[in-house]
Structures are given as C-alpha cells and as structure tokens.
Amino acid sequence: MPNSRHADQASRRLPDVGTVGVADARLLPNDSFEAAWSSIFFPDDAKGRLLQTVVSNIRLRATVPFEALPLHGVVLLTGRPGVGKTTVARGLADKIARTVSGLGSWAFIEIDPHALASSSLGRSQRSVEELFGRLLEEQAQQGPLVVLLDEVETLLTDRAALSMEANPIDVHRAVDAALVGLDRLAQRHPGVVVLATSNFPGAIDPALSSRADLIIRIPVPDPRGRRLILEHTIAAVAAAFPGAQPLLAAAVLDRAAQLAEGLDGRRLRKAVAVACANEHCDPERVTPEDLYATLRIMGEEQ
Q1: Of 28, 37, 48, 159, which one is least surrounded by beta carbons within 10 A?
Q2: What is the domain count for the chain?
Q3: What was the pLDDT predicted at 120?
Q4: Average pLDDT value for the chain
Q5: Could you tell me which of 207, 269, 283, 54 has the C-alpha nearest to residue 295?
Q6: Residue 6 pLDDT level (bands cut at 50, 70, 90)
Q7: Where in this chain does the record put each AAA+ ATPase domain (predicted)?
Q8: Residue 252 and residue 99: Cα distance in Å, rounded?
C-alpha cells in the first residue's frame, strides 16, 4: 500500500502556485498540516466528530445517488478571526487523506478568492469558470481532492446585499458560476471535499450555505482549551529557551488560562511572545508575572 501511494503521488500533476486563483497546491498527507491539526484544541472531541462526519459523507457520496442524498462535500467553518478556521481546514485535509484510502493519491488546492475578482465586466465570471470548469475538474479527474476556499464570502458573496456601485451583474454571474461549478464537482466527483471558511457568515450567499453538508462555528477557547494552547506554545518556547520552563508549572498555567478569558487562540500564542519581550528582552528570563501582566493588558484591550 505505501508503494502504491508513492506511485500515485509521483504520477499526480499539481497546478502551479501563482496560477490565477491558486494560493497553494500540494500532495496529501502533509506533515506540516498534521502539526496544524495537533495545535488546535476544541472542547469535547469536536475535532474527532468533525473528521468522522466528513469521512462518513465521503463514503456515502461514493455509493448513494446524489438525487437521493444531495451531499455536496462542502464544509463551512465560521467564527471570528483568530480562532483557527484555516488551521483546522488544513489539518482536516491531512486527516482526511490519512483516513480515507482506496481512492488514489489525495491533493490539496487552496483558492485565493481575491485573485478571481476583477473590475472588468465579465472577467470575474470567466476566472471562476476557468477555475471550476478546467483547473479543479482536471485535478478531480486525477484523484481525490480537498479544496480550501478561505474567506469564501469574497467569492460567494450574498447577491441580495449587493450595491449597485459594485458592478452587481458581474458579481452575480461570478457567484452563479461558482455555484454551478460546485454542483458539477459534487455530482461528478464524490472524492472532492470543499472546506470553506468565513469570518462573516452573514455575508455569504444563502445558496452556498444551503449546499453545505456541515456548518461549524468555531468558538473562542474554553478554559481547558486556553490552558492547552498556552501549554503548547510555552513548551515550544521552553524547548529553545529553557529559562521559560517555570511557566509550565500547573499553577501558572491555571492562573494564565483564567486571566485569558475571551482571547482567541492566535492572541493566546502572541501573548506568550509578548511576555518574552520582558524588561530584559530575553525569553530565558521570562517570568510568570510577565505572562500574567500581558494577559491582563490583552484582556482589557478586547
């Protein structure tokens, strides 16, 4: 099986990064994506349930007719900036590839929706049609595929909320083209999974939301999640700067997690970095009080 996987990967052709609309392209599994999955902490094994649902849907789509069970392979991840939506999506892509076998070599394509937008009439629509009708179709024909649509509201914006000053006809057509492309991929290629993220779910066209098999709102970390994120970050710093080891004491982590209420994962990790910029500007000399003070300030700034 490993030799077969390597052979499939060797024969799979990926689009060049820099092709219009392509922000990233790589084969799966991917070690850096695996690390990303491990760095995200959800309450009550929500990550495990998310993976189980996506894997189950892939198997259902491969065997049950679309007309009877219209699964589109679309997962929508929402939440405020900094909670880890993109990180979750990349990690989930890796986990899917490690879990679902028998379909061939998995690939990952990240779409840059901003690169598809244009002020010229009709150009956005043509770019979207090229992306879905040729590039993603060709990739899906080669084997299973995970597509990441980050900030999906940029591409699939709510058509009912468009301003007449924003070239609404072209945006309408581009959204229509994207929806048609998603439908074609869903019906022709059950091994295609689309992971979409958004900070502003209210700005997404309802036609996309109705196509989503699963909509997950990623919350800010709970007390246990905050503690785990701080511990994960501090451990990485302490591996390079052993003087930071005292911050890993249970009492310190408990107190820091309490002070960090309301902070998202990104702010928590940055708090550790800010604490290291103490009066000595030396991570080796960071103290629990440096961390507490940083978290208090960040909490007040919210």
Answers
A1: 48
A2: 2
A3: 46
A4: 91
A5: 269
A6: low
A7: 71-222
A8: 37
